[in-house]
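Narrative summary of target 7.
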Amino acid sequence: MSHNSEIGRRGLMLVLSSPSGAGKSTISRALIDRDDNLTMSISATTREPRRGEVDGKDYLFLDKATFDRMVGEGKMLEHAKVFDNYYGTPKEPVEQALAAGRDVMFDVDWQGTQQLADNAGNDLVRVFILPPSMAELERRLYSRAQDSEEVVRKRMAEAVSEMSHYPEYDYIVVNREIDQSVAQVQAILNAERLRQGRQSDVHDFIARMQGDHT
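Modeled conformation, tokenized:
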């Protein structure tokens, strides 16, 4: 009797948070590109689609009544109001991915992470990305040439507040060099995939090996 060399497992939810400009989005894109079993969570939003955005790919575009109903029925893992629009993570597609053994990545702030922790339990792995220094963070924000000086100052002030929430995360990565940081987050992901509690078929796997031996 032969046994399968692969052990089935439940997927996990990988959360990356950081102050604006610390490199979270760059790290996220690199991980998605290199890891076939990792997908990006698609948020729902009540805002209007921008040119080129595709419903179901970039966002799930919902009207306010539908969004409110999903929140009320507990069908959002997390949600928040940003300016005049609402954003949230629908529970069903994430649960389907996890049950199929796929891992889902989330690009959310500390408040979204707290909500996910309340709703996701042991499925969650939380990584906080730090800049190597405040001076380097400021340099990166200016080098993007996307924001005015006033906006950069605001983001720097927000960074101080955001970084105070580091104890709520499982891992801390200091993004000194992007390739190194991507490798570190990938190492975290690989190790978390091997946790005994996530390898749902390990009991049957060992029982099959023991049966082969008798």
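The radius of gyration is 20 Å.
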